[in-house]
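Hi everyone, sorry if this is the wrong subforum. Our group has a chain we'd like a structural model of before ordering constructs, and none of us has done structure prediction before. Sequence below.
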Amino acid sequence: MKKLAALIFCVFAAQFALSRSAEEVTPLLIGQKTPKVDVVDETGTKQFLPALLKGKHSILVFYRGGWCPYCNTHMQELAEVESQFLELGYQIVGISPDSPELLASIEKDGELPYTLYSDSGVSAIEGFGIDFTLNKATLLKYKGFGIDLGKNSGGLNKDRLPAPAVFIVTPDNQIAFSYVNPNYKDRIPGDLLLAAAKAIKN
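Answer:
Right subforum, don't worry. Here is the predicted structure as tokens:
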């Protein structure tokens, strides 16, 4: 009986984790290590995330996708101050559920100077605790705007997104700063992120 109860609880917990809202995300905390997960570059090649970040101070930016105007504005703002992050010894890494093919088109256009990675299977997004599930009404609304998450992710993800987030990661893969906001319209300003990056290096 106890085993059955434990099994029911595990199933319920898993279902909750897969259907939580943006307000219910549970991001990794300062001091915790980055998860051991893969992301995919624009060529479709898997890259081990801790290896990409190891030995470098990194600004890790999770965004909803290239279809999101708020994400594009924020990513462009960070691009404009990237040189200042580079002077401090930081790299900027962008991660979204977009497919590698979509990332390749962005790279080709040269719109952003830093590297973007695909997490269409949302393993990194899950690992950082910022994944949530869109309700049916929102999905229908997005489809009315011509946004198909399944198509954007190469068919791997149809209804899950990251709450937009920024993590500053130290060379030993430890989280030193995080900003996560369930309101996708609110993003951390570039100058504030730069101030946090400076404080961590000092």
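For your construct planning: The mean pLDDT is 88. The CA atoms of residues 192 and 198 lie 10 Å apart.
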